[in-house]
Amino acid sequence: MKNIIIVVLALFCLSGAKTETSIAIKFGTNFVPQTTDQGEVLTVTSFASDSSSLYLYDLSDRTIAIFNPEGIFLRKIPLQTIGRKTYVGDDFIVLKQQLIFLNTVDSRLEYFNIDNGVRIRSIECPREVPDVSSERRMRIVNKIFLDNGQIYLGNRYYAFLFDEPAVLAKKMPVIRPFALSKDSSIVMLYNRLRPVIFKSNHLKYDKNMIEYKAPRTQFYGKQTALLKGKLYFCTTTDSSITISFIKVME
């Protein structure tokens, strides 16, 4: 079956009419979900961007899929193994031509060359957000964010700056955690000026929003990205991966 791409345009209102574009990439040639002995379906599990492209981590075959800003699939890059079958991490960011994965199993950051998928290094990171009194599920570090060129670790509720130079120099980093949200919203993508939040079944970025559609398969990392003045959201259906986006209104 050839990979089929379906483009759907939908209009919705938020301070005037906005156009949402959805790209559906059918499961088939480039994306083939695998089912584990426990019945878990493995496919794409995390979404990120840099200044030029969109990236999806495919847990089924340990690859990074690259898309252009219009959501069109370009190619896949295989990632070097870290010794755990197809797993290299739950979430990731793209920084300085490197893919940086948060490996929550071993509490490490795994660095890969973005051009060939070769593993560059692996460094230790905290398993939990320190110095917060919340219940354990709100302390577990399971997200990695990139803001203003700096790495932040945390989850939907808390984050802290990860002092990479201190860790590489084998010094004890100073960690100052902070709450990401003080209301009923949940932070999906950290940005100190304008985070992407989930509230009332929509993803909101300042005055912009896009409808949230629950994935049919498990996402362990982020489902949102910002690139070239657009807000992106990735989800899955029974038959495809869907990337939706809107032009951001400043």
The DSSP helix count reads: 1
- Oligomer class: single chain
> Quick one: CATH class?
Mainly Beta
- What is the total number of structural domains? 1
Structural class: mainly beta
**Estimated helix fraction:** under 10%
Order of helices and strands: EEEEEEEEEEEEEEEHEEEEEEEE
End-to-end C-alpha gap = 41 Å
CATH topology name: Thrombin, subunit H
Rg from Cα: 18 Å
Describe the largest sheet: 5 strands, antiparallel
Beta-strand percentage range: over 45%
Count of beta strands: 23
Uncertain runs? 1-17
Describe the structure.
- It contains one helix and 23 strands.
- The chain has one domain: Beta Barrel (Thrombin, subunit H).
- It has 250 residues and is mainly β.
- A hairpin with a 2-residue loop joins strand 13 and strand 14.
- The chain is globular.
- Residues 1-17 have low confidence and may be disordered.
- The strands form six sheets. Strands 1-2-23-22-21 form a five-stranded antiparallel sheet, with no helix packed on it. Strands 5-6-7-8 form a four-stranded antiparallel sheet, with no helix packed on it.
